[in-house]
Amino acid sequence: MQKLDSSQKKGNTKLLGALSVTVTSICYGLVPSFSFIAFGMGVETETLLFNKFLYAAIIMWAFLLIRGIKVRFSRRAMLGMVVTCIGYVCMSTTLYISFDYISGSLATIVSFTFPAMIVAIEMITHKEPVKLTKIAAVVLSFGGLVLIVWSPDIMGGALIGVFFAFLAAVFYVVYIFGLDFKSVREESSFAVAGYVMTSAAAVNFVRCLISGKPLFTSTFEQFGMMILLSVVCVFMAILFYAIGVRLIGPGNAALINTLEPVLACIFGHFLVGDLLTGRMLIGAALVVIAVLITNLPGKGAAPSSEIASQTSQHDDV
Closest Cα to residue 311, out of 112, 201, 176? Predict the structure, then answer.
């Protein structure tokens, strides 16, 4: 009877963990669609990013205060935090620049080449052994990207969008390697997220001032969309990912989070009318398969790609 109860409890834990990470994938998958809806309401990119990260940072700092989570970092963590913040700010900026040229779902697919980049770097630097499956993941990921770029529908300005989405993937790698600093991993992942959001808000505050774009939205409808982006696509995504990682581990969480680009395409089609050609869909499938292979469990320590693909990893929630 005790064995049955223990088995049932373990099964419920796995189910709850899987559902938590699925919620995260949904939250992040909504980012492009919600952003394009906001653009349609007249919100400028700089304004959107400033508001999104400002409100998310306020919510996160309130959460940290209520939970009594330590927010003061050791000096050893400073370099890693600088790398993390720079990587994240540059990643979010270049991704949103790509939105000016291509659909949000396509940009998400291209940016999801980052796990293959990490695997390639780890093999080149001998941090991880060279394996056929890892080589296959890299080839599939970049093969899918090439297939997307060579599509007749990707011409002119769209190529610029693909370039910036790919650049976002590069900066995502910088961001993740920043998170992988030992001194940063020893700190609260929620506190790390708070500092990252604050730095992103500060940079986009300056961007608004320099570009002359408004700091805040002008209508209640626009404000509501900013709250949705902040609460659903930033805070909830981080919170549920942390819960999922705690319950099922970073490897399984990363595997389930492969749903993100798929959901981004589905939401993009139904919410904002994104169109994807057959060649693009095949390319997207190759990228998703590559991410799945990258995150398949193996012997030994988990690679850097299994660090939370977002900022949460190991907090008690």
Answer: 176
- For the residues 290-310, what does the mean pLDDT come to? 57
> How many CB atoms neighbour CB 174 within 10 A?
16
Quickly tell me which residue has 């939970």 as its tokens. Answer: 67
As a whole number, mean pLDDT of residues 131-147 equals 84
Domain extents in the chain: 22-306
pLDDT digits (tens, 9 = 90+) for 95-137: 999 999 999 988 998 898 888 888 888 888 877 788 888 888 8
Please say if the pLDDT value at position 309 is more than 60: no
Closest CA to 205 of 55, 38, 23, 62: 55
Evaluate whether 54 touches 201 at the Cβ level (below 8 Å): yes
Percent of the chain scored above 70 by pLDDT? 86
Which of 178-187, 196-205, 243-252 bottoms out in mean pLDDT, i.e. has the lowest?
A: 243-252
pLDDT of residue 155: 59
Residue keyed to tokens 């990363």: 254
d(CA 89, CA 48): 14
Tokens of 122: 């780890």
pLDDT at 306: 47
Residue 128: strand, helix, or coil: coil
Could you give the residue ranges of the DSSP H alpha helices within 236-296?
A: 237-256, 259-272, 278-294
Q: Which two tokens stand for residue 222?
A: 């626009």
SS3 of 141, please?
A: helix
Q: DSSP character for 301?
A: S
For the stretch 74-81, contacts whose Cβ atoms lie closer than 8 Å and that sit 24 or more positions apart, written own/partner, are 74/183, 74/186, 74/187, 76/183, 77/181, 77/183, 77/184, 77/186, 77/187, 79/181, 79/183, 80/178, 80/179, 80/181, 80/183, 80/184, 81/178, 81/184, 81/192, 81/195
The phi, psi pair for 149, rounded to 5°, reads -65, -35
Residues with Cβ within 8 Å of 284's Cβ and at least 6 positions away in sequence, in order, are 109, 144, 148, 261, 262, 265, 276
Q: How many CA atoms lie within 13 A of 42 on its CB side?
A: 9
